[in-house]
Amino acid sequence: MKGFKFGLQKVLDYKETLLNEEITKIQQTLTNIQKTQKDIENINFRKGQLIKKKTNKINQGISVENYSQFSRYSTFLHNTEKQLKSLQTKQNEQLDNLRRVAQLRQQEKKTLEKLKKKNLESFTYNVRKQEQNFIDDIVSARH
């Protein structure tokens, strides 16, 4: 409505910007979690392949050197998986924190929007009241 100014519009715009930033962070974190999950699945696939190769080699007769290599690679895969799972846990915690912050930002924004709506309703009521008074003054001045 023309003439209406919400005194906290800049604050509302700022809160909306903060909310959008949190949403972007959430999306980035979700992408990182998905990447980490794919990396974990890849490690598990490689562990499965290693077990198959190791079983084949044992059936064919395995040298001590090959067994040692299998063992080192298996340890490497296990440690890598452990690190990725730890990273995934931290990412999930970060995601939970980001969601809580975004929820707070959303509540702040909604509160300001409700206040803006109430102010607009009050402004509209006052304008209509002034218009009615103006019309009443014109009508009473003609009589």
TrEMBL record:
Entries under NCBIfam families matching the protein: flagell_FliJ
Gene name linked to the record: fliJ
Signal peptide range: none
Record localization: Cell membrane
Protein name, entry field: Flagellar FliJ protein
Protein family according to the UniProt entry: Belongs to the FliJ family.
Lineage: Bacteria, Bacillati, Bacillota, Clostridia, Eubacteriales
Membrane topology: Peripheral membrane protein
GO cellular component, one term: bacterial-type flagellum
A family per Pfam: FliJ
Domain of life: Bacteria
Gene Ontology process terms (BP): bacterial-type flagellum organization; bacterial-type flagellum-dependent cell motility; chemotaxis; protein transport
Keywords of the record: Bacterial flagellum biogenesis, Bacterial flagellum protein export, Cell membrane, Cell projection, Chemotaxis, Cilium, Coiled coil, Flagellum, Membrane, Protein transport, Transport
Chain segments annotated as coiled-coil in the UniProt record: 77-121
Major location (coarse): membrane
